[in-house]
Amino acid sequence: MKPFVCALLCLITASSLSANLPFTWTAEENSEQEAYIERFKRIAMEEMERTGVPASIKLAQGILESNSGKSYLARTAKNHFGIKCGSNWKGDAVYREDDDYDSSGRLTKSCFRRYNDADASYVAHSEFLRDPNKAFRYGFLFRLEPTDYKGWAKGLRKAGYATNPRYPELLITLIERHRLDEYDVPGEIDPIDLEVPVEDAITGILNTNDVNYYVSQAPVNLQQVAQQVDVSVRRLLDYNEKLVSENQTVAANERIYLQKKRRSYRGSERYHTVMAGEDLYDIAQRYGIRVKNLARRNRLGEQARPAAGEQVKLRGWRVRNPPDLTRNGATPDPVNPITRPDRTIEPATTDDDGFLDMGAPISPNTPIPEPKPRPTVEPEQPVVTPPATTPPTSPNQPATVYHAVTAGETLYAISRRYGVTVDAIRQLNALTGNTISVGQQLRIR
After folding, report:
1. Per residue in 364-398, pLDDT tens?
2. Which of 8, 20, 112, 194 has an alpha carbon 20 to 30 Å from 94's alpha carbon atom?
């Protein structure tokens, strides 16, 4: 009996010790992980600049989910994050047993997305996390500092991304072992042309607000998109307000909607807080809403650029008062008008959201009459002392532009948005490095 008890105690002790030991990998596995990092570090950094998902977290997740690119899904479907098809996926797919069961409790094969290029799965991973329909699960992560990889690792587990209770420890161990946090430094990556063909850079057909849309990592011609998604060019022009030509080239990462956008947002959010540089079109694109309906709901013109921090209503009745267009004396940047075919004004109707369409939108640019010149008074006596001369002022002096930093933004990303250099922003704001904080007001021009 004693030998049995002794052996049992030894087994329990060994198990408890192994549960507390740090995660270890063989020399061969470490080498494979290093090769994986070298291959995907650039797209991870580009996605951090674009979306705010830390490069360290994305690389660590890629290593875990794809077993350093050796998993079945990574090899056969170029799907490095195990992203499933979902009801709206129209692209190629791979079926494999995972964790789906039928009504009888039997394990069934799950549908996983197949990509033409592994980089596309990295982009799709970002879109999955920042999907407005999933904001109630993952939205809080984007309020963390992008360099807080520990907070992100624990937050992913808290949000239900993974069921393994040690998932955060696995991510943190990989990040610290390979110093992946060094790739979270802002401004370290320059935009480059993709080395893969455009058709291989497609992320697949994604969905927001129950509307399908298409995104490419590279600039793409509209006719090429129509062939890829099997939707006519005429319909694409009808569904997307800023698409006006059959031969138009669409910028990288710009959404191209494949169906009519909704009149209102069907998610949980009722309002959107405007970020610096956003206009109504940007907001409508993000939530899958038609620009004209968003403008009417907020009593604005379709070209309006609400001030940063204002609330734009996404669903429900029309607002009583429109959002402010300027704040703190700032002047909104000029917006090129959206060219559309001539349309007749429809009579006032009540749409499916319940707010009344009062007709033509209110223009935010009401002309201000020029002030009358003051009458000049001739002096009765000549002036002995000549008046002090003042330097002439430029009549077209550009307005000062400020930007309010939001979670996940970097100096490099901000500089690209406004078409200025990082050094110029540093000099204007007396910055000694690249560190910025959420809510900080940066002078851009």
Report:
1. 444 444 555 555 545 555 555 555 555 554 445 55
2. 194
